[in-house]
Design brief:
Number of strands: 10
Order of helices and strands: HEEHHHHEEEHHEHHEEHEHEH
Domain PAS: 22-77
Enzyme class: transferase
CATH class of the largest domain: Alpha Beta
Shape: elongated
Number of domains: 2
CATH architecture of the largest domain: 2-Layer Sandwich
EC number: 2.7.7.65
Organism: Duganella margarita
InterPro entries: Diguanylate_Cyclase, GGDEF_dom, Nucleotide_cyclase, PAS, PAS-like_dom_sf, PAS_4, Rev_trsase/Diguanyl_cyclase
Amino acid sequence: MSDSSLSPLLSARVLGLAQLGLIVLDINQQIVMWNQWMASRSGKSAHRVLGQDLFDLYGELRGQRLEQAVHSAMQSNLPQQLSPALNPSPFPLYPAGTWGGERVEQAVSVTPFTEGKERYCLIEVSDISIIVGRERQLRSQAEQLRAQSYVDGLTGIANRRHFDVALDRELRRAQRNDGQLSLLLMDIDSFKAYNDHFGHQQGDACLTLVAEAFAATLQRPADLAARYGGEEFGAVLPDTSSEQAALVAETIRAKIASLSINHSPAATRQHVTMSIGVATFDKDRLADAAAMLAAADSCLYAAKKAGRDCVIVYRQQQENAA
């Protein structure tokens, strides 16, 4: 019967082919094994490191999680794992043959064992750079998709979904803190006539130009400019009173008029203009999104009836009606 155990030569060959780093420390933390994988990624041959204290060889590891794991494994006789999230690259290891640049990402495990009467510790080091890179790429793609889901594809400003989320968030904040919140609903005047005369491609260009100008007038980071739908736009203005919102709306109206975009002959005005309705949070009358949107929409309709290219504020409308 043949001896089924590996010969020393074959064992050395297997260790040389292993696709992970293998380090064995004795009870004094001196290196008694250092495989070819470690040599090719550290620039340190086994001949150079055997017999050295691992934490003298790599002083940066002294007092760090790996040294603690080795001590703990030796004392408890239980294996230890280093979290890649907390210890992404403990060893100064680089892509094979480079020995410089960016360290490879590592997963490190520490396993105590006994051979005869001697105690040892096996440290296994895996290169997880590809896995980590894929995870980062997937996270980046997910973030891009999430960002795209909140952006209007034509104009590049926030879309209706983003508007609704922002309005709901700011409403809850206003209700919680008894704060101020205003919203604007606005519409390009006689846009159907513009589209019919100039065509949809030019119509899209007009929408984009108006959106950019409208968004540029909102200076505070918390303010949100959004395409509400079609030729209609909306703005969420946190910490903004009715009077302040009216000033913002007038600034937007004037800005759009100043673009001097030629309108179609069928339009009531020579240049593209915008009508705007304004509503402000009121815990007694306009306390939820539906009520605020309905109020702003009624003001927008009133602005159209009043001749277009104007701003109407909900509170003013009520007082005038009274």
